[in-house]
Amino acid sequence: MTPFDIARIAFTPTAVATWAGKDHRNTNWPVVYVLDDAQDGRKVVRGEHVDDVYVGESRNAAARMRQHFGSVEKRHLSTIRVIVDETFNKSVCLDLESYLIRMLAGDGSYRVLNRNDGITEADYYDRDRYRETFREVFDELARDGVFTRSIPEIENSDLFKLSPFKALTQDQAVAVEGILEGLFEDLAADTDSTIVVQGDPGTGKTVIAIYLIKLLVDIANTAPAEDRDSDTMFSDFFAEGFRELLTGIRVGLVVPQQSLRESIKKVFRKTPGLHPEMVMTAFDVGMADEHFDLLVVDESHRLNQRANQPSGVQNKKFRDITEKIFGWDDTTKTQLDWIRAKSKHQIFLLDAAQSVRPADVPPELLRELVLGARSTERHYPLVSQMRVQAGADYVGYVRGMLGGQPVTPQDFEGYDFRLFDSLAEMREEIRRKDAGSGLSRLLAGFAWPWKTKTDKSAYDIEVDGCQLRWNSTQRDWIASAKSLDEVGSIHTVQGYDLNYAGVVIGPDLRYDAVAGKLFVDRGSYFDAKGKENNRVSGKVYSDDDLLRFITNIYAVLLTRGIRGTYVYVCDPGLRAHLKKFIPVDK
């Protein structure tokens, strides 16, 4: 028998007063409640905002409701669902509140009104058992129309993965707290500042970028008299003095990759206080007439230096922006320079080992950026692995394996890491995993020409009788209708999570068994911008330079899978070499 009860009452003073007198737990017991403005069940088109929702917890639910009656932003809400369980304590309620906020944000049919003041991943007695109860609570609320999607559907969605309502890891929380303290110190002193957050794939750099912007917006917009919860992680920043420092602040989030940028814009459309116009390219920043108080730059290693852009229009824009900002066309200036010139404060999130094209900002400039942040104590490293369940060692293992560094073969227990001798079999395994877990996709290096750009009936990748096509869209490809039947390139998956990734290492990367080293086959690498020399700076990219970009690409692809990574290798020499490090599928 389910121990919890969910009371559904009208959000009116009379109804709350009547309900309060029915049970002592309504005025003296830790509970979680959901407030929304859905009157008669949910009749919505998925993806469109229709209703608002607020989730809270309290030891005195009736008194808390009376406080909400005085809130302008909650006055229009109509229905309360109070979750009461005789076994709940404060820790359980905080955890359930956090869980429901995250799931509602990921479901996407409500606009979550909660502010972001620090959802925690605190441990407590018997947490695993309570987490089972949470799923039962979810199911009950879903039957009452609160949720429109299943738990797996929500957890696989971009709205969930990129939501600002995330439970931070310990080192993420330390980084966010340090960033806030440093930023407010610099705002108070009216001094410029540069902050760097550095981390490997899967450490949650994008999560921190989105989380920070929502947190700053909430601090800026919280009324001085508004009740604040002292139990939350960043509640101290909602105190007097901090809000004033953010008055009128102009904030932007710069995201170089088109696909990731579009996904984040979807999240911003659903989040109060955030707007899709806040998510920009470096070109948007450069062309803007206004100056920014703060720019947060995700995937900063993908900012561009002066090089031949994908179009003549962008080449002209690069020149025009440089002239506009610096007074003349200084070809040594990069988009990194634009960001610093157009803002008083910057937060750069980066991983230099994820630079994948010659036009990306050179690694030496990223090193200078990191050293500068360290010298001013504005550098925050991330080490906890959030994506790959194999742990942080897996990322180092993959990079060592592809970087020619000595690595000892390892068995990553609980992580499905396999080398396939048949691409067709790997494709079928990805299909099986997608049917069972969802979010499983094929990925590949750019080792085949993109025939389907001009001939939709053609196939791009043909290996051992297996015919495949490249991604048919650059925007939000992973969630697109055809993605399971296609192969994603680096430009569609960098910054994203998958449950299972099937990675095709093409003939662009090979292994010389005699010399004992990896090498590139230029003729089998078809990303024109990925091997183009820089005529502006006179830079000619050697095979060693190209090897760095290509191995970086494959390292990114091999670190997308949360639960598992499958590998097919085209070059026989490289396949034989990698069999020493990757368990062979049987």
UniProtKB/TrEMBL annotation:
* InterPro entries in the record: GIY-YIG_endonuc (IPR000305), P-loop_NTPase (IPR027417), SLFN_3-like_DNA/RNA_helicase (IPR018647)
**Pfam families per the UniProt record, alphabetical:** SLFN-g3_helicase
Give all residue intervals belonging to the GIY-YIG domain.
Answer: 28-115
According to UniProt, the name of this protein is: AAA family ATPase
Lineage, top ranks: Bacteria, Bacillati, Actinomycetota, Actinomycetes, Micrococcales
